[in-house]
Each structure stands twice: as C-alpha cells, then as structure tokens.
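Researcher: Next entry in the queue.
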Amino acid sequence: MIRFTGGDWNLAEECAQDAFTQALRKWPADGVPDQPLAWLTTTARRRAIDLIRREALEAAKLPEVAMVEPAPYPDDSDIPDERLELMFTCCHPALNLEAQVALILRCLAGLSTAEIARAFLLPEKTMGQRLFRAKQRIRNAGIPFRVPPAHLLPERLPAVLHVLYLLFNEGYTDPVRARLCAEAIRVARVLAALMPDEPEALGLLSLMLLHDARRAARRDPAGDPVILTDQDRTLWDRPSIDEGAALCERALRRGRAGPFQVQAAIAACHATAPTAGETDWAQIVALYDHLARLEPSPVVDLNRAVAVSMASGPAAALPLVVALAETGRLDDYHLLHATLADLLRRTGRRTEAAESYRRAADLAPTEAERRFLTARLDS
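Model: Structure for this entry, 379 residues:
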C-alpha cells in the first residue's frame, strides 16, 4: 500500500486499517475468502482511490496509482523472508538511522508511538513529530519503496539490526509480549544465514539467545523481577547459552567487533559463569569500556557503573552514577534511579536511597517492576 499510494505512509496505513476493519466485520458472516490477501489488498486500494478522489488529488495521484505493479513484492528478491524483506525495504539510506528504525517499529512491528519513544528514551510527543517528519520526507522527496538488491543490503543492515534488537527488548521486558522475542530471534536467524559474513548479524543473534536463555529465571512465581545475581541458574537454558557463546566467539574471530558483538560478549560472561560469585566483573568493565568507545550513550555509562560497583564496590561507582544523573539525560529512566538507590543503600545513605527508590517506582513502566522497587523501598 505504501508503494501503491506513491510513498504516502499515512494514507497507506489508513487504507490498510480500513481493509482489516471491513474483514473483521464481513468475514465472520460471509466466510474467509479463497484469497484473503488479495481481498485485503483490493479493498485497501479501493479505499485509497476513494480518498484520493475525495481530497481532489486525482490529477496528481491517479496516474501514479495506475502505474503501480499489482504484485505486493517482486519475485526476484534475494531475501527469503517477507518480514525481513520489508525491513530492508523500509531502511532507505535517505533517512537517518533513528528514523528508519522508528518507522519500521511503528508501521511493520505494530509498536505504539509511546513504546517507540520509551525505547529511544524520548518524550512521546517528540517521537511522534519525528515519525511524521520521516513520512513527509519519504513522500515529498519521492523516495522509492522497493526491495534493495543484494549489494545494497550491507548499508541497510545497521537499521535492521537495531529494529530486531528493540523488538526483542520489547518482548523481553514485558512477559505479555514474549512472542516478540521469539519472532526477533527467528528473523535474526534468517538474517545471519542470509549474510553469514556480517559479524554484527551473528553478534545480535548471540546476544538474543544469551538473554533469552535466562527467561525462566527472570521472574518469581508472582511475576516480579529477580535480579541476575539472585536467579536460579538451574533454570537457565544451557543449549541456548552454548549456542549463543559459540556464535559470539565465531563473530569476534572476524576481527571486526561491533556493538552487538561486545554486548554479546558481556552477556556470555554472565551466562557462562558457574555462579554469580564467579562472574568476571573486571572483564565486564573492560568490555563496557570498549562498548562506550564504539557506541557512546548514557545507558552504556550506567551499565558500566553497575559493573564497576560489582568489581570495585559501590563507593567506586556512586560518583559515576551521580555525575550521570546530574546531566539530566536519563532523568525519566527508571533504571537510573533504581541503580542510584541501590548504590546509596549499599553505602549506608538510606534516606537518599529511599527517595531514589520512590522516583524509580514512579517511573517504572510495568506493574511488576513497580512492585519490585516498592518492596526494596519498604525494606
């Protein structure tokens, strides 16, 4: 529909949604048609033509509509998975990386603007404006909506990797949406097979497997979070850990360590330690140092500070987190305040710790995390 409407993302979304609505109303009574995709496509196209006519844009738009190929995808694509194909199609280099990722998450993955804004640590209004501008840029600049040939896939790979990572995280933090993790891992496997010489694709798959291996131990029977050091390691999925660690080693041997490979190496340090007490925290700090050079961000700095607290004690990490808090860049990020509260508690500053726990609980995105932080506050 985006191609059919000449790159008008908003019109394409509206018409697709209208076709789904009509299907939900008609199919239960009339039965599912023999070719449901063709029915949906035809219905959406008819709706688009009606809207174009209604808005008196017939002269400008109908010739474009008439020239569009009826097939939804070209037959000669090198990409063996339709969802992955769509991701590569949407990652046009004329848009910046953030815009590419946000558009895919909104239009192909079904995440709300609020969820995307949370993933980017931005206000919802700001993300809404960026999405709008990205769609307008596609429309006004006439950016073509077509599957890229194989030789152009590497330049679009970073955006696709980020999309899959954010999709995985959305399912990882919310048990209700765990299916997103499974789908992200599935598509990442296809991607790693499609581009076996790209170590970052292997690194991302490794990272997902290593994190997902701990799923059964991450929450208690009430559904509340269990921190890594307290998790029952007998519940971890050892085959997934073995596969993830092997993929990480295979990627790093290429000699082109990228952010996802380094994050996978950090996850492997956690997952392969026999006990929490045997975790090589000094190595993890060194890996975060490397990650900060590759992809500097306040979240990386925060995670590094946590590793420093485990390697050298809370007193060594507290100034790092205080300095990060003073920048204001993570002021609405609940994990900043939760980390600060934990360090204050461990250094005996209980009154200040309580205040930080209150702030973290107020910002927690899920009820389970709010209960966990409130319990820490009460204790």
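Model: Residues 9-72 form one domain.
Researcher: Noted, moving on.
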